[in-house]
Every structure is written in C-alpha cells, then in structure tokens.
Amino acid sequence: MPYFLGLFAVPDGVCKMNRVLIFVVLQVFLTPLAAAESLKILLTNDDGYLSPGIQAMKAALIEAGHTVYLVAPSSNQSGSATSISSTGVRFSSLGKQVWRVEGRPADAVRLGIGHLLREAPPDLVISGINFGQNMGLDVMVSGTVGAAVTASQLGVPAIALSAEIDFAEAASGFASTLAVFPFAATYATRLIEQPELLAMPGVLVINFPKTLPFKGIKQARLAPSSLINNVYEEAEPGLWRSGYAGDTQDSEDTDRKILSTGYITVTHIWPSYAGTNALAPGSLDWLIRVSAADPDS
Asked: Mean pLDDT of residues grouped by 10 in the chain (297 residues)?
C-alpha cells in the first residue's frame, strides 16, 4: 500500500530508506518555515533553459534566498536519459549565473559540477520542473531524471521534478500544467529546506498532478508501464514517430495510478543499475557454464 505522507505513524516493517523518505517529506508540511540556510543550487532540465518550468523554479529559489546557477541545454533534449555528447560541448554565459549549453542535460550537469562550479561545488542539483510527467518505465529515458541521476553519480544530492500534462490540452499549450508550475516550485523550495534531504543517498523523483489544488502527497513505486508506445507513423516524408499509449493498467500503489488521482508522487531511485533487484548469486551459473565451455568440444 502507498503511504500517505500526511500521517504521523509509520507502519512496522517499513525499511530504513522508506522511513527516512517519509520523514523528509512529512517535514515539508509539518514544519513551519524557518530562516533556512542559503544553498548553492545547480538548476537544470531537459526542456531548455527558457522553458516555463525551470524559470518558475528559478524564481522560487531566488525568492527563498538560495543562490542559483542555471546550467541547462539551449534547446529541448527530452528523451536524453543520462547520455552525453561524446564529441564535446559548447556553452555560453548569459550573465546573472545563467549558462546555455549546446548539449544534453547530463552534459549540463557534468559541465556545471566539473568546470563552471568546480571551485565551489553546488550543495544540490535540481532538474526541472519538466513539462510532462516522468513516471514508470519512462524514467529510464527521461532527460530530467537523467540529469539528476548524473549529479548523484558525481556525488551531489539531486531531485527530479516534473508536472503532468494533459494531452487533450496540446492545442491550447497545456494551460493546466502552466498553472501548476508556481505551486510545484513553491513545494520544491520547501522540500529542499529539510536538512535530511542533503544526506539522502540516491535520487528523488517527484511528479505534480495537473489539477489544483493538490490533494496531498504519497510515496509511490515506479509503475511497470510506459506512456510511449511502439507504433510508428510517418509524420512527414521520411520522418517516423512513435505515439503515446492510452490508459495503462497499473496497480494502486504505483506513481502513475496515484498521480491520476490528484496526489503528488514521490519515488526514490538509485543512480545505478547495480541496485537491490539484481539476481541472487548463482542465478547465472548456466550462462557461466556455457561461456566457459571449450568451443571445440
């Protein structure tokens, strides 16, 4: 069952990581806002440095007194995951601690941590707020999540923020999502003021529903489904695109299902494939026997 993070009681049997996560997010709602210590934050995304989500996040962070270094792609890089530009990247300073990177989200994070802020590394990397939800299997291809994962791999705490879109609003520019951005940015600003966040290993993936007001917040597991289907159509001569799946059949405790009911979802992920779900030792003995066999025998 998902845990409603407005509850005080934590059920018996909840693992240590889940207890820490529950406590951190509980604090966002239960602790009065105090004069928080100013953080150095590297802000990035995969939608591009001018996107409304990242601009809303920047404004909220600056208003809260944090120091923001916006290092983000020059254009939309959705679907980049943790990929990098192997031939190198170009970047330009736009002043006021804003850098435009001719590359991918992971490039921006690596450039920011390894070069631009090398002498004074950031306390935290925030990726987003993305224009569209990043949930379930789609976190594997998300440039928003990929940027946060890259930061975590480099030893910097990170969170990935996304706001849901309603595909029916495409013609109108996704008005509901645009309205959500300021509220999502305010929530995220309160979240980072919790000291437990900076000590938490891994990455927090947070999705905001498209409807206001938010009903609350729940911890969720990744849904075993994707919004990206495998049906390709020729959008224009020579250009083929896949579409999006309709309603997915997900269980009640998954991020996709919970978001659809109007709750913010919070999911913890590890920045490595070497996670806790690896096969048990000995499970691949059959493969070892095959590979070790004499090909001439």
From this structure: 34 54 55 66 97 98 97 96 95 97 98 97 97 94 97 97 92 93 96 88 96 94 84 88 75 92 95 73 76 58
Number of domains in the chain: 1
CA distance 214 to 104: 31
Cis bond before residue 192 (omega within 30° of 0):
no
Q: Do the domain assignments include residue 164?
A: yes
Report the residue count for the chain: 297
What's this model's pTM, rounded to 2 decimal places? 0.83
Closest CA to 157 of 125, 190, 116, 194: 125
Task: Report yes or no on 252 lying in a domain.
Answer: yes
User: Which range marks the domain in which residue 127 is found?
Assistant: 16-292
Within a domain: 8: no
Q: How far apart are CA 121 and CA 213, in angstroms?
A: 36
Neighbours of 274 (CB within 10 A): 8
Q: Answer whether residue 5 is part of any domain.
A: no
CATH code at position 137: 3.40.1210.10
Q: How large is the angle between the packed helices 16-30 and 175-191, nearest 10 degrees?
A: 100
Give the position of tokens 């928080």. Answer: 36
